[in-house]
Amino acid sequence: VVMSLLLWRPTLFGADLAPVRMVVDPYPSFNGVVVDPVTDLVMMSDTNRKSLLLYKRTAGHPTSPEPAQAFGQIMGPQTGIGFVAGVAMDPAHRELFTVNNDVEDRMVVFDYDDRGNVTPKRLLYVPHQSWGIAFNKKRDEIALSVQTPNMFVVFKRDAQKFDAPIRSVRGPKTEMADPHGIYFDETHNEVFVANHGNF
Q1: Which end of the chain, N or C, is more open, meaning fewer C-beta atoms within 10 Å of its C-beta?
Q2: pLDDT under 50 in the chain at which residues?
Q3: Model-level pTM greater than 0.90?
């Protein structure tokens, strides 16, 4: 949720008007985080400004009075970023992934060098309330956790637009309940899923 205060003149009520002044919280509200150890980059999702922020892995210091500065940000209406949840980075293809959890129902993909209000390299329409992202590099697949109806779905890494999942796991025997975090363990051929809240 973007924290903001909007002000109008009382004599102008009843019309579709831009505010006279606006105060907006300039600080990000971090949600997801991913590290690329190959390039020493960290990417975080920001629900407040609906953006992705890129940092050097060593940015920031606990004794510094100033917050660490991002060296890159992807933000704006052309990006398709909304209520951003999970994030992932693919060093091999130099791609940044993020999934929108709420009304947008899509995953958007950017190049490592993208900045500002840019159009995604590609987008994929995903199930409503998708949250976490996990890569399986060996299979060239990506998995998304879905809060309701308690499942995870698997797509080809380069899936786009209306491509269907290649498989899904769901049902009461799975014991998934409001799943958020997800991780592929390629060594043991396992998928870890973390339930959220009281489950």
Answers
A1: N
A2: 1-2
A3: no
